[in-house]
Design goal:
156 residues, alpha+beta, Alpha-D-Glucose-1,6-Bisphosphate, Chain A, domain 4, 29% helix
């Protein structure tokens, strides 16, 4: 089966702990991407309700759900789409966080999808990738201007 991938790299002007905590929280992640996202199943990890086993629900025209399959605080979040793969046969995302110093970090974000409809799947993935990159870059601008910036200030 053919696959497509989107790779996004952002260097944030914020500590890795701050960026990880924002991207780890499902409703906050949705606000960054400009969509309503909610956690519908909590992780059994008492210290991280958004950790392994947690499920987030969102809609971008069609309802979808993703399940976190790996989570290492300030280092990594892996997830897979578990409901709503209308255009893909598989969907796997990996966010890898790396502290560059105490005021900057790097995010390597890779989304890999199995393709059902090659041209349509690639077009959809490119649109999703551009939207995610825009949201992450906007977050970086806000964190650069105000290191204490809190996403809860954002409204959808």
């Amino acid at each position: 089966m053919k696959t497509h991938a989107v790779k996004i790299k952002v260097i944030f002007n914020a500590p890795v702990e701050k960026v990880y905590s924002l991207l780890n929280d499902h409703p906050t992640l949705g606000k960054i991407y400009g969509i309503k996202m909610s956690r519908i199943i909590d992780s059994n990890d008492v210290g991280n309700l958004n950790g392994v086993g947690s499920v987030r629900r969102f809609s971008i025209g069609l309802p979808m759900e993703e399940t976190v399959v790996k989570s290492e605080k300030n280092k990594r979040i892996d997830y897979t789409m578990t409901k709503g793969m209308h255009f893909f046969s598989s969907h796997y995302g990996t966010m890898i966080f790396q502290a560059l110093n105490d005021k900057q970090c790097e995010l390597d974000y890779i989304i890999t999808v199995g393709v059902k409809f090659p041209i349509l799947s690639k077009a959809i993935l490119n649109i999703v990738g551009a939207s995610i990159k825009k949201g992450l870059n906007n977050l970086n601008v806000k964190l650069t201007a105000n290191p204490d910036y809190m996403i809860k200030q954002m409204k959808l």
